[in-house]
Amino acid sequence: MEKLIYKGRAELGRAAAKMAAGQIEKAIENKGRAGIVLATGASQFEVLDELTAADGIDWSKVSMFHLDEYIGLGPDHPASFRKYLKERFVDKAGGLKAVRFVDGDALSPEQECERLGELIGRGPIDVTLAGIGENGHLAFNDPPADFDTQQPYIVVTLDEKCRRQQLGEGWFEKLEDVPARAISMSIRQILKSELLIVSVPDLRKASAVKAALEGPVTPQCPASILREHPNCKLLLDEQAASLLSAR
């Protein structure tokens, strides 16, 4: 893992987007295609704005997956990650080769996991954009995360701290509105990406960042597993890095 610290969110977002664009362009040049995984949430606002504005990417050769979605939430709900990515990425990039949304209101979440697993298994993922939750989660793999399952997508139960984060970011009006279950890309599938770009701004993430970088590698802090990835770039702003012993 390489740790990089930036002055603020805007600078962090530009750097993450530049890295992602370079990896996508390299994949297209070498293989004629690129596979990407995108995250949602407040940490990705600037990243996706910059990425969709990048010059020179042939989006018609890019297939997109996303990390997670609430179970039981329709695509038009204000907190839907499908809605988020459609508005902030898909519509702006335009003409993607494939868009593989997680269908959170599928009749069978387990069958939806199988469908997505078959699709993502068809080709390598060149770059994954992700963040770290206030409880140290990766995607919706809350602690204690399953570090062993090889299933690409799994059904998970969200812990209260995770649900309170969604409430605090303004996606829901009250805690009871935050779904208790979701479909999430698994830890092992996330780690299969050739490049991981993990963007973590804000002071509220500082404790999770410290645990991920300076504590043990443990399912109790799912993001700690990032230290085992050979090509992970962890981008922090100064607030998120403020509790680290070594800057």
User: Into which percentage range does the β-strand content fall?
Assistant: 15-25%
Shape: globular
Helix-strand pattern, N to C? Answer: EHEHEEHEHEEHEHEHE
Average pLDDT works out at 95
Helix content: 25-40%
Given this structure, which CATH class is correct? Alpha Beta
| Radius of gyration, in angstroms, nearest whole number | 17 Å
Give the beta-strand count.
10
Major pleated sheet: 7 strands, parallel
Number of spatially distinct domains: 1
Q: In DSSP terms, counting alpha (H) and pi (I) runs of 4 or more, how many helices?
A: 7
Strand order of the largest sheet: 1-10-9-6-2-3-5
User: What distance lies between the first and last C-alpha atoms, to the nearest angstrom?
Assistant: 14 Å
The name of the CATH architecture is 3-Layer(aba) Sandwich
Q: Residue ranges: pLDDT <50 for 5 or more in a row?
A: none
Structural class by helix and strand composition = alpha/beta
